[in-house]
Amino acid sequence: MLTIKLNNMKFHSYIGVYAEEKKIGQNIEIDLACQMQSDQSRYTDDLTDTVSYGAIYRIIEKTVADSRVDLVERLGQQIFDDIRAVYDAEIVAMSLNIRKLAVPVNGIFDSVEITLTDTGKRGADQ
Q1: CATH class in words for 2-40+49-119
Q2: pTM for this structure?
Q3: Which parts of the sequence belong to the Dihydroneopterin aldolase/epimerase domain (predicted)?
Q4: H helices within the chain, ranges in order?
Q5: Least buried of 18, 90, 104, 125, by fewest C-beta within 10 Å?
């Protein structure tokens, strides 16, 4: 089994519940792990036998740039949907973490983080 991970990607986003979050934006960090259907690339050394992590990065980059959602949970689902639109047959499961580094909460902490998992199934069993 092959898992491709993209760790600590950094983006400036315009997501959030409050108008200021959508106006000035904020920095977020994303980690993504994709469990692949095949690990054939370890035998062939051919990019067409795997999923390009560069292509995955560009999908995430575009999704974050285009999104104006309120919740990081919804952004995570948009990322999953956009990746699955291209690589549904190749990816068995995905997991991602999204960290908001500056949140409108009166307290001292580094970030707020959510974790989502996508197994390709829809509904209550996901």
Answers
A1: alpha beta
A2: 0.89
A3: 4-118
A4: 19-24, 41-44, 53-66, 72-87
A5: 125
